[in-house]
Batch of 3 targets.
Target 1
Amino acid sequence: MNFLITGAGGLIGSELIAYFAPQADSIMGVDNNMRADFFGPDGDVRWNIRRIESTCSNFKNITCDVRDRPTILKLLQDNPFDAVIHCAAQPSHDLAATRPFDDFDVNAVGTLNLLEAVRRYRPKAAFVFLSTNKVYGDGPNNVPLVELETRYDYASPEFRDGIREDFPIDHCKHSIFGASKVAADVMTQEYGRYFGMNTVCFRGGCLTGPHHSGVSLHGFLNYLIKVNLQGAVYTIFGYKGKQVRDNIHSIDVAGAVDRYIRDPRPGEVYNLGGGRQNSCSILEAFKLIRDVTGKAMLSEYVDKAREGDHICYISDMAKFKGHYPGWEITSSLHDIMTETAQAWTKRLKG
């Protein structure tokens, strides 16, 4: 099989390349290091592109912007891709508000460019879009919650397993980032349903792992571990640090993508997160990372939550598991933290 993977230097893009390389005929990456433009030197992904170039002989990266429509069209016209996996994005709530044109052009228009290129030249290819749980906006905050000692949790048994794919996505605040991803998400569904293409939206929870260029504005668990190892101060934004995320290792994301590509279902939507088993609040993450590194977490508190942020978000994975039996989370929260701490220790030593 021949793959095109956008955002090749990012956490998920690079994991997918390493995952598919042993079975692929060729893998072409698209990454112009826009993360460094968005987040500065700490967001630079060139180190990661070099890493996968050195280990995957059938991988080649193209320095291309997904907003460049003529180049994207020609890329699909000239290459026999069997699967297109779209990971490139502007991923930050806060940055989107200060750069709304860049945010929408990368997230929404870039996705449309790829979808139309696939429709014109590779209509039988699988098209996988890495969407986000932020398409639900702050609607999940309206679910009745209970405040526990170290976290918020759902008060109703109906949500014990988390948020399902049929949860409403409108009449709520999304953040500018969330709105641009909604546009891309709905367009991806439409190309599947209107044109019959093999498209899927994976609405990611907290996607994480060791090969992330985590920064304050994006990359919760990876960034937190980096801050801990550096002995720096982590800023908690609102909700007493009891806000909950479900965390999924990038290798388990790759496994889910693989399942879909092998047996595509046109126009589908799936949540993709660690579920209750891999959920934690910020306060709980502090304790977990101390157990891994032996270092106490230094923190400061800002009594203002990020716009559109979730108080408690856990992905209900029942739909995907029902469609693709046998897929399960393989990396526990402790595994994720241990592996990420080891990777950051190595990187920080240079």
Target 2
Amino acid sequence: MSDRGSAMFENDTVVITGGSSGIGKALALAFLRAGARVTIVGNQPARLEDALQEMKAVSAQATALQCDVSDLTQVRELVARQMDVAPPDILINNAGFATYTPVEQATSEEISALVGVNLLGAMYVTREFLPWMIAQRHGRIVNISSVAGRIVITPNASYCAAKHGMVAWSDALSAELHQFGITVQVVCPGRVETPFFDDPSFAARPPSRTTNFSVPIEKVTRATMDALGSNRFLTYVPRWFGLAVWMSGLAPATAHRVIGRVNRSRIAALYDRVAQ
């Protein structure tokens, strides 16, 4: 990112959910280096504190707040504490997790948690901050979805549904908030090696060439910050994912057959491995 691009965030207040690890932490460090005031949000106290200390070595403008974004009561407490500091100029809804579990093997509680964190959490946090953003007549909301938010990838169907929902919700939200000078953008990264894959269910994942293809976290960070300097609604990382989505839209029936065949083979391989 250019120096000019970095300067645009100086003195901005940035709130990042899921900011204690992975993409969220990388973004937080980048914003701090660009001169922004950053609040990271996470639900694991030890990890949150470790991340905060790492950030304070970069800038004194870092703050950490604990919150489970799927819990509306906690979200309201988070917003009240943040408002004691400053309303966000930029809100990044990044909190998320996944499991490598077919729906029939998942509990209802697991499904609820997946949708709660990956979709409802973004909705809750955004809605609770909106009155202050509207009062300011400006604000930028960035929702970190996934390539799984545009192309069906399974397992897990519940995660895929939540990320698809985030893209659709963001599109509608963008239209609703335009009159208030608030922009909404979505970033859809591919596979990024982060603690996202720490869930034990991923240990059952059969070997695949796709697991060898990862997007560098720095590339996602740079693409997200570059997107904030543009009017682009949807950003794919890497960009060729956008071409794949576009092509699937040109021939939806063919795309459905091809993607369905790939997904069925992934599920078959998972069940075969579990049976061994």
Target 3
Amino acid sequence: MLLFFYIYTAKRGTMNKKTRGDLLLILTAMIWGSAFVTQKSGMDHIEPFTFNCIRMLIGSAVLVPFLKLGRKASPGHGPGGQLLPDEKRRQTRLMIHAALICGITIFVGTTLQQIGLVYTTAGKSGFITALYIIIVPIYGIFMRKRPRNILWVCVVLGIGGLYLLCVNGRTSIGIGDIVTFIGAFAFAAQIQAIDYYSLKLNPVLLSCMQFLICGIISVPCMFIFETPHMAAIMSCWPQIVYTGVLSC
């Protein structure tokens, strides 16, 4: 319903840019949050590197038809709309640099998240991963970005929620919770990188490239640390497709 409302109002031109962005982020959160359930059930069939390798390569491939949607106007364009040689080389170098940073950080984040899901619940994993919303502005402090005062209220609430979800009767935190929490720092770094590079590059192409790099890095890890079987992969293809197509 949210998607249909977004399309309807966007076509009529009755929605401003900020509202459009907020609705897209809410829709993203709904898809991303529901994916934790499929990611958890996928771990009943295959191992983390195998799951991430296939879903990320699928995610990269799915974005290819939409690359033109993310094109940005640039002062380096010539009269025919094509990039001038110098600007094209600069954009290519920047894209490679950005894709490597984003791809490596999302590889670390998703790998730790999938490993954590083996030992913790989908609900706890979702909450702990979402703590990157606190970590992101904390990173910003080191980048000379002054956070709003409400951030510190969020920090207290986030730590309180983490305690209530993760600490059991013996006041201990499980290994899956710790691994997932470490992964949240990688996601926060990836978001900071996206925030910086998406203003300078085609964001759809950047997303496509980061998922491709993440998938490629996962290939050797899959064969070194795991034993992938086609039968096991096919037994959880709905989970892989859901996370690969919708989440990515």
